[in-house]
């Protein structure tokens, strides 16, 4: 049960920023974490980052540390992923996924958003 | 990062066939291995977690085994809706989580 609904596709220029939202419904929001996963065209999946929606603890993939910010709004059950200094190789389909709340439960992605296409092009 | 490989990268099968997909990890990951199905144009869905735990609602024709570095996903009695791409993903304690490159099951 549950649903994750993401914001719509976006086109940005290199160097710009993008903010993608992920609204959860149908389950206890703060009982789960949220990870972000992306899939570049013709490429595999890449895990990006994770947030505990209750206490906002975060973890990031090393290559994205400093360029990605995760925030959560418990009043609207929404998680936001912001990426700065966009490059052409950031062009991908971005998914939010329901995850565990900590190191003993995370990494099992049992609910996926529909995906948000972010295109970085001049 | 823990590398995952899958074999084969693609296969052709018929309805009713038994299909086996292998996922190998670059280092031991105990049973921290999950399997997903992705149909074209859709996000993945979780089939199996912890190497062999079938998710509620997933048909029993799906099964999986393995531990350490070698894992298999088996579909016994392939159905039309099973023609899709299958990914393994490791959730071992050290980040980052990583995915296998996928195995696409095509209609023969």
What's the end-to-end separation of chain B, in Å?
Answer: 36 Å
- Mean pLDDT of chain A, to the nearest integer, reads 95
Strand content of chain A: over 45%
Number of helices of chain A: 0
Major sheet attributes of chain A: 7 strands, mixed
Main β-sheet of chain B, in a few words?
7 strands, mixed
The secondary-structure class of chain A comes to mainly beta
Q: Strand-and-helix sequence of chain B, N→C?
A: EEEEEEEEEEE
Question: Can you write the helix and strand succession of chain A as a string?
Answer: EEEEEEEEEEE
Strand portion of chain B: over 45%
Largest interface: A-B, 20 and 24 residues
Task: Describe this protein's structure.
The complex is a heterodimer of chains A (122) and B (108). Chain A is mainly β and 122 residues long. Chain A is built from no helices and 11 strands. Chain A has strands spanning 3-6, 10-12, 18-25, 33-39, 45-52, 58-60, 68-73, 78-83, 92-99, 111-112, 116-120. In chain A, strands 2, 4, 5, 6, 9, 10 and 11 form a 7-stranded mixed β-sheet that branches. The N and C termini of chain B lie far apart (36 Å).
Provide a quick synopsis of the model.
The complex is a heterodimer of chains A (122) and B (108). Chain A has strands at residues 3-6, 10-12, 18-25, 33-39, 45-52, 58-60, 68-73, 78-83, 92-99, 111-112, 116-120.
């Amino acid at each position: 049960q549950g649903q994750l609904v993401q914001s719509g596709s976006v086109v940005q220029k290199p160097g710009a920023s993008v903010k993608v939202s992920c609204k959860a419904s149908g389950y206890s929001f703060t009982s789960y974490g949220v990870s972000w996963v992306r899939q570049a065209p013709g490429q595999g999946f890449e895990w990006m980052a994770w947030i505990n929606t209750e206490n906002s603890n975060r973890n990031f993939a090393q290559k994205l540390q400093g360029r990605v910010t995760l925030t959560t709004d418990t009043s609207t059950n929404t998680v936001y992923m912001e990426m700065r200094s966009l490059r052409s190789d950031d062009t991908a389909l971005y998914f939010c996924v329901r995850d565990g709340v900590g190191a003993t439960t995370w990494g099992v992605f049992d609910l996926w958003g529909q995906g948000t296409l972010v295109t970085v092009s001049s | 990062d823990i590398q995952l490989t899958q074999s084969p990268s693609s296969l052709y099968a018929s309805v009713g066939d038994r299909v086996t997909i292998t996922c190998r990890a670059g280092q031991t990951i105990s049973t921290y291995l999950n399997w997903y199905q992705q149909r074209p144009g859709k996000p993945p869905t979780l089939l199996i977690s912890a190497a062999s735990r079938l998710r509620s609602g997933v048909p029993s024709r799906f099964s999986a085994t393995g531990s350490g570095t070698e894992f298999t996903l088996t579909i016994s009695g392939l159905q039309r809706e099973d023609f899709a791409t299958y990914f393994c993903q490791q959730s071992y304690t050290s980040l980052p989580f990583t995915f296998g490159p996928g195995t696409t099951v095509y209609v023969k």
